[in-house]
Structure formats: C-alpha cells, structure tokens
C-alpha cells in the first residue's frame, strides 16, 4: 500500500485499496443524517475480479492507496490462452490470461496499443482505446435495394466478436467498433475488395 486517503477525498474513478485488493470508486455520496455521525456511501468495483461492493464508511475513515501502475503496451500475439504484450519503452514482455482480460480479448488484434494495469508488479487488466478498426470475416451478403431503415444483421469480426451491423456491410469491410459499449458498430472505415 502506497499511502492512505480520507473519505473526504473520494471522487468517481479514484482507485483505493480495501483488505489488500484494489478497487475503483464508481459512485459515492457523503451523508450527514440529522442524528449521529456523518458517513460515506460508496459503490466500488474490484480491479481484479470485477465484483461490486457497496460499503458504508464513517466520515474521516482512512483507506489505502493501491500500488497501481499503468503502462502503454502493444498487443503482440495469442499463445494458448495467454495474450502477450510488450512495453513500448523497454521492450519487456508480459502476458494476461483470457480469464483476466474478460470481454477485452474480443477487441485485441496484433499491434494494437493498450494500457496495461499493474497491481504490486502483476498485470491485472487492460484499458482499450475507445474504438478499434476490425475486419469483417463473416456475414450475409448485402442485398442491393434493401433499404429498410435501422435493419441490422450479425457480422463476425476478425477477433471472433459478433457485432450487429447495417445491411450494406459485406465480408472484407473494415469497421470502427466502440469498445466501451461491448462492441457497438460506429462506421465503415474501408470497403472490402
């Protein structure tokens, strides 16, 4: 633990340590009841397991500051169930398993730059860019003249991710996909040949 902070310093997105585990604050509210001492209601998510807790802390209570570091890294390749990354500054390599990455694995393609999160020197997760460009490897062909407004069809991307796309999208097209909303189609970047 790198230090301690008081509940008065809480803000959304702040990383804290409770019981030896790193968490990020998703929501907090300082409450001053008519009787009794004030307290802070919080909603925190574990950076390791993803579980959500809602502890109530007394005002002035101290929590730890986790030993967390983020490094800009490049995704290299998949070997078995290990996704390998390289630090762009010192060329050191590390890997994360499919279990640790969760849904982020569906957006990883070779040479993409990500931010890898380390806790006490161990890689525990990645932060993806807001969007990635992925090639469509499988989808039903677009039908000329089919102009139903808002109609969608499933398309399989090069990483295995399945995204609902407009009817005019074809195999080979390169699409911009939003990583924040679980793989939402944004726009077509290039038409396949």
UniProtKB/TrEMBL annotation:
Subcellular location: Cytoplasm
Keywords (A to Z) from UniProt: Cytoplasm, Elongation factor, Protein biosynthesis
Pathway as given in its UniProt record: Protein biosynthesis; polypeptide chain elongation
SUPFAM superfamilies: Nucleic acid-binding proteins (SSF50249), Translation proteins SH3-like domain (SSF50104)
Record-annotated Elongation factor P C-terminal domain positions: 132-188
Xref: Pfam families: EFP (PF01132), EFP_N (PF08207), Elong-fact-P_C (PF09285)
Annotated GO MF terms: translation elongation factor activity
Top-rank taxon: Bacteria
UniProt cross-references to PANTHER family, sorted A to Z: ELONGATION FACTOR P, ELONGATION FACTOR P (EF-P) FAMILY PROTEIN
Its job: Involved in peptide bond synthesis. Stimulates efficient translation and peptide-bond synthesis on native or reconstituted 70S ribosomes in vitro. Probably functions indirectly by altering the affinity of the ribosome for aminoacyl-tRNA, thus increasing their reactivity as acceptors for peptidyl transferase.
Protein's name according to its UniProt entry: Elongation factor P
Source organism per UniProt: Archangium lansingense
Gene name for this UniProt entry: efp
